[in-house]
Amino acid sequence: MERMTMQVSRYRPGRDNEPVLQSYEVPLRREWAILDGLNHIKDHVDGTVSYRWSCRMGICGSCGMTVDGEPKLACATFLADYAPGPVRVEPLRNFPVIRDLVVDIGDFMRKLPEVKPWIIRDEEDGDGENLQTPEELDDYKKFSMCINCMLCYSACPVYALDPAFVGPAAIALAQRYNLDSRDDGSADRRDVLNSPDGIWACTYVGECSTACPKGVDPAGAIQRYKLTAAGRSLAALLLPRGSR
């Protein structure tokens, strides 16, 4: 059976001063993803290797890693694409490393509720349905596909330099609700999104959208909100106060 070398980043608190690469030989099978290679190592070679995974279907977002320098989902990235190897597997960049390939995503989890990623209603419309047209659904559907995998934060050069940046995924999720015809909460999200650490920190490099495995296009969401915010500011400047 063909085999391939995986170079896995190892960091064990209290033992390692910094991450080091450790090489493992795994079977090279056409249908195996990076995650299958890691599971083989864990089950048959070295049970101390630590990493996150859950669904194996590109839905949960928990197996985000850096594969040969690029942020990827380990369950959707195939070993055969890196043959004959070696392939280097490291933790996501721009996050503190807890152990091996496991990173601390607490910063994102603290920022997420700040943008209120849920439907906010001014008034309840009784027990009836909040119907939408296909066009209204299409307006926000793409931004609803985020799986919180953090690949966009790992790819973002702004977040790498300034961790105070709200970040691509959080802003895209805010836009998902701002664009929802059932939502009345855009004003509640305005201060966070319109802050110096919000949309205006983004320099539109676009790496977040390139890295997204679900085609969410966070960069597009940010630029769209910039136009909304600029239009609102211009209207406030030009229109008489009583006409706003």
TrEMBL record:
Sequence ranges assigned to domain 2Fe-2S ferredoxin-type in this UniProt record: 6-95
Keyword hit for Cell division: no
Superkingdom in the source lineage: Bacteria
Pfam families reported in the protein's UniProt record: Fer2_3, Fer4_8
UniProt-listed PROSITE patterns: 2FE2S_FER_1, 2FE2S_FER_2, 4FE4S_FER_1, 4FE4S_FER_2
Ranges of residues in domain 4Fe-4S ferredoxin-type: 133-166
Annotated cofactor note: Binds 1 [4Fe-4S] cluster.
UniProt entry tagged with the keyword Zinc-finger: no
Pathways involved: Carbohydrate metabolism; tricarboxylic acid cycle
EC numbers: 1.3.5.1
Catalytic activity of the protein: a menaquinone + succinate = a menaquinol + fumarate
Cofactor(s) recorded in Swiss-Prot or TrEMBL: [4Fe-4S] cluster; [3Fe-4S] cluster; [2Fe-2S] cluster
Protein keywords: 2Fe-2S, 3Fe-4S, 4Fe-4S, Iron, Iron-sulfur, Metal-binding, Oxidoreductase, Tricarboxylic acid cycle
Family indicated by similarity: Belongs to the succinate dehydrogenase/fumarate reductase iron-sulfur protein family.
Protein name, per record: Fumarate reductase iron-sulfur subunit
Organism, as annotated: Rhodococcus olei
Gene transcribed to yield this protein: sdhB
